[in-house]
Amino acid sequence: MKLGLNLGYWGAGNDADNLALAKEADDLGFDVAWVAEAYGSDAPTVLAFVAAQTQQIDIGSAIFQIPGRTPANCAMTAATLDTLSGGRFRLGLGVSGPQVSEGWHGVRFDKPLARTREYSDIVKLALSRQKVRYDGQHYVLPLPDGPGKALQLTVHPVREHIPMYLAAVGPKNLELSGELFDGWLAIFYSPDFAKDQLGSIEAGRAKVGKTLDGFDVVPTVPIVVGDDPRACADPIRWYAALYVGGMGSREKNFYNQLASRMGYEDAAKTVQDLYLDRKYDEAAAAVPYEFLDQTALLGPKERIAEGMQALAASGVTTLTLSPFTGTLDERKATLRTAIEALELAGVGG
């Protein structure tokens, strides 16, 4: 199992710290640094910035929003980042959610599975440097009734194949990630629930004659180091409450549905009700400690090592860490502790 670092969002006064963390992870031998986008900082600009100031660590999008750019533009960006980074780019994609897709990008959140399939097809076609012709339900290239013509990507990526990942939560999307992608970007990953999720991915792999061998399972896991695991859980309560309670609408919140499938249906409903009533502190307090402990690494180094052993045994191949609290020096120390815990766990790859 390798280690990654999730740098999240940028542009909110945290740029210098995020870059320092990326450099620290690079020096420590972390495998990849991921960058997110929502409706603030865009991931490609940040990834180019990080790539220019690191040496060995891979850079990855977690995620590029599918409604935010055309598939051809996505391929252009991927090829450019792979070239600028010397072959260190990993392309993570996701459909985002209905509020961002329709409210920010003006793209209907309809048939996300079919749209993701077509998007993936066109990105792969473009990156293969063939002339792009595609006749789909959501994308038609070139348009049949105008002057457009089939074009070929002019940029040569460093690698023949840029690894592609899908952020997936529901069973059908998990199956799609197994069928079409090289890896899965997971959130609220629990070793106790992983068998069901990996079963969906395995079904997708079987569709194309593949197994889970070589497939990268990449959860982002909050990490807080300290003597008391329960106290360590407190800084991540707001994050869990935001996703379980406030992402999407009451009727369509993928993270709330995931928590329910994991056995926390009553708590998930309570957290959502409180959050949507803008009782944010109460919503955070209502997140069960057991849910946080299942989906994060909390406590002293030895306990974190035990958690890493469980994650590796469940099928995780790249453990992406999100240091959630502390000064910059304390978060750097957390990354060093993670390296030590990985060595103690004996599951490093």
List keywords for this structure.
2 domains; alpha/beta; two-stranded antiparallel ribbon; 48% helix; 349 residues; TIM Barrel; globular
Write down the Rg: 20 Å
Shape type: globular
What order do the SSEs take from the amino end to the carboxyl end, as H and E?
Answer: EHEHEEHEHHEEEHEHEHHHHHEHEH
DSSP helix count? 14
As for the number of domains, it is 2
Q: By CATH's scheme, which homologous superfamily of the largest domain applies?
A: Luciferase-like domain
- Work out the strand percent: 15-25%
Q: What is the terminal-to-terminal distance?
A: 5 Å
Which CATH architecture of the largest domain?
Alpha-Beta Barrel
Query: What is CATH's topology name of the largest domain?
Result: TIM Barrel
Q: What's the pLDDT, averaged over the residues?
A: 95
Largest beta sheet, briefly?
8 strands, parallel, barrel
Low-confidence runs of at least 5 consecutive residues? none
The secondary-structure class comes to alpha/beta
Instruction: Bin the helical content.
Output: 40-55%
Query: Count of DSSP E strands?
Result: 12
- CATH first level of the largest domain: Alpha Beta
The side-by-side strand order for the widest beta sheet comes to: 1-2-3-5-8-9-10-12
Walk me through what this model shows:
The structure is a single chain. The chain is an alpha/beta fold and 349 residues long. The protein has two domains: 279 residues, TIM Barrel; 65 residues, no CATH class. 48% of the residues lie in helices and 15% in strands. The chain contains 14 helices and twelve strands. Strands 1-2-3-5-8-9-10-12 form an eight-stranded parallel β-barrel, surrounded by six helices. A hairpin with a 4-residue loop joins strand 6 and strand 7. Helix 9 crosses helix 11. The chain is globular, with a radius of gyration of 20 Å. The relative contact order is 0.13. The model has no long low-confidence stretch (mean pLDDT 95).
